[in-house]
Amino acid sequence: MTLRESDTATLRLDLPTGGIRDCRVLAIGPAHASMRAWAERTLDTLAEAFGGAPLTLAFKGTVLLRPRALHVPLRGASAVIATWRGECRFILGRTQAVRRELEGWDLDAVAVRLGNSGDVVRLELREDEATSEPLAPVGRLLLGDKARTLDILSELHGPWRISRPLIVRGQEWAVDRGGVLWRVRERFGTARVVVRSSCSAEDAWAESNAGRFLSVLDVDAGDAEALGRAISDVFGSYGRGAESEKVFLQDYVHPVDESGVLMTRHPETLASYWVVASDRHSGRTDQITSGALENPSSAYVEHGVPKGLLPGSLRRVVTVGRELVKLTGVETLDLEFALAGSDFHLFQVRPITRRTGLPEGSEVRRARLLADACTAHQKLVPPRGPVVGEGTVYSTMTDWNPAEMIGRRPLPLARSLYGRLITDRTWAEQRAQYGYRDLRGVPLLRDFAGHAYVDVRASLNSFIPAVTPAHVAASLVSSQLARLAEDPQLHDKVEFDIADTCASLGLRERLRRLYLSDVEEGELEALAVALRALTLNGLRGLPAWLERVEQLRAAPLAPGFGGGLGPVLERLRELGTLPFAHLARTAFVVTALLKSFVREGVLDAGEQRQVLQRIRTVAGQLQADALRVRRGELSLEALVAEFGHLRPGTYDLRTPRYAADPERYFGPLISGTEELARHEEPLSPSLLERIGAGLRGAGLELSSHEFLGHLGAAVSGREYGKHVFTRTLSAVLEHIADWGEPLGLGRDDLAHLSLEQVEAAMGLPAAEARPRCRDAIDEAREHAADINLIELPDVLIRTYHLLFHVSSDEQPLFVTKACVRAPVLVADGLPDAERVRGTIVLLERADPGYDGLLALGVAGIVTAYGGANSHMAVRCTELQLPAAIGVGREQLRRLASGRVMTLDCGGRRLVHE
Fold first, then answer.
1. What is the percent of the chain where pLDDT is above 70?
2. CA dist 68 → 107, 154, 161, 530, 839 (Å)
3. Bridge partners for 446 per DSSP
4. Is 14 a residue whose pLDDT tops 60?
5. pLDDT of the residue at 802
6. Do 327 and 155 contact (CB within 8 A), yes or no?
7. Could you tell me which residues come within 8 angstroms of residue 582 by beta carbon, excluding any fewer than 6 positions away?
8. What residues pair up with 671 in beta bridges, in sequence order?
């Protein structure tokens, strides 16, 4: 391809010590912006070496200017002329005469004129130093193997420091090891070095093979034996063909203040984020890339966020990222770095291997969603009656934990069903009936850019007794929000570690310690009395709410679907989700009371487990019934009739019910279930006596046997209530699927319609309903795709957190004290039985539809979301199955990248290999 003169840009640097700020553009055509940035930085780097002479550069298209290659010839000549395939590609001069020649002349003509003067050096560019694409980004030439890329970048001034690589070629190592070792000693002496891989199979545009090849850190360059072994080991990791490859050595940087990886775009979606995973604790440089760090920090920063908003080290990382994107012209870069004092060490620059781009217009729509979310958040900052308290916190896992139940980015049908049945009205109605503040009319869930969040301020309001004066409630909520903002990792433990919602041992002392500076002592005493009354009232109400559940079980679909979905859903709410909410609250109350006995030293953790393991839930009944089917004591039809409504994703129409494929879902259960361990031995008199003492200390006139009865009834009742109401809910979902089928609407289509849209379409003739639904589905799909390009935090406190957030991993709940090491299985839905046995299963969330996993011989369970009261936590406790519940989405992503992991519940560690 012949380059046109319009592909020429001319730059001149007049002040050699002035830097690129004084670089003036004489003329510039449509050359790629990164070529101009590269030329400016090259001139700035060369300026230091050439006194007061002006430097002038004219270039065509994209060419890789290397200061080190230009510096030597330019010292003895007035100009360097570089050609490629017979064309002049650039001229670099350092005299006024050359500058005058370059103004207004065609490069080839200027090259001839300067060549005739004789005071020039001519260079022929290699294939990897120029391209036939006139407007290609510099990165197409720069980003090759790791060693070459770093070697070239090390020549340029920038906000980074790169130890110049010493490159060792495989053929050279094979025939002259002594010569190589001598070169290393001459360069590094006895310093500590790192021997790094630079294989042609890694860091390519189509495939990175990150972590596939070996690097050896902290080698003594003066120890020939250790150094030779390290170089051989790195070459050996390449396998066949190593003699044509290379490794390189650099200074070993240690210790460091922070190290990590920066992705200049989201690595999965390519959305406009700076994504930073960093280690601020170990002092090493390999903990992030090796996956060995247990609690790394993760940051997502919108490209448009002003640098001034970012904390110090994150600002430095993003600044380097912006500079390298500008310099290379490549928007998708993967960088490894370390910060040590004032130095920013750059260890690697490579392209993110991604074959597909962003949908057209998605970035604009995404920006609009974020702007709307910021506006909505700002409007919600002031409290509005009946909500009191200063400060806002939104969470994906507090209270009715949407992340676990419907996902962080729920589709319209699941989101609207959850709202209708629970978070619009039922949640507040239950709290008011229990004796808490009346929040009816206040929605619990808020949506920001399609992400579902619990309004934690509203939730905390709903846990204060109704008799508490408003000014006291405001002080309590403000204090609780402030504590949560200081320690956001407690967002899935708010009811245990932030709020006091029921009677407990040590309650008065805790209230005084937390609130006495803002609330009078008499008001705190009244609060403790009110919480005790709520606790007793809740225990007394257990039988009535269990009876409501039985009414729904007896007639789950009455009055049927003849009158539309409305009557069925309202009956489901009144006899299903509202009673379940009462049972779940009471289960929390008795569990929190039991935990307070452990916290205050009345019981130990082992005795707490001993008490809880005696409780049998309906989920345990699934395994027991499967065993009965195997023994011929129960028919398969009966098992399906009782449990066939379960589905992984209770509110998700897209996932099939167990009844849809009994062989797949029930077959492994029937063949693999073992007899459940029984805990029928009576509790010791000493334990019963201490439970009784704890109850008296909490001001509750209950015997230990009465309390244990309430505990068992509440915990098992909660699971039973869930089991019953999800049966009707599952039938509603199947009814929607059956309605959509003749309209040509599949399950995935219908999941993109809201409940209100479905109800409206059901009242229309098919010919009118079909196109209306299709239009709504298409719009919802595009909206969902845009939402999936947005990363928001699990805890949202400030408006700017919608644009950037920094988080570390959650503090998970570990179940049992066991330590297991097993292969990792990432499950999206219920996996096939033959893949499950002996694995540690990783799940984003786990509702009752995943109970089938637990009887398949899994070694352990790890979930991103869930808390101490979540369904999977209860089940794993009942079965004494090793588990880590609620590790956070970033930790789950890292664990999913390994093949094997160690789940050390006793040591509270998660390590992937």
1. 91
2. 23, 10, 16, 78, 54
3. 453
4. no
5. 96
6. no
7. 430, 433, 434, 538, 541, 545
8. none
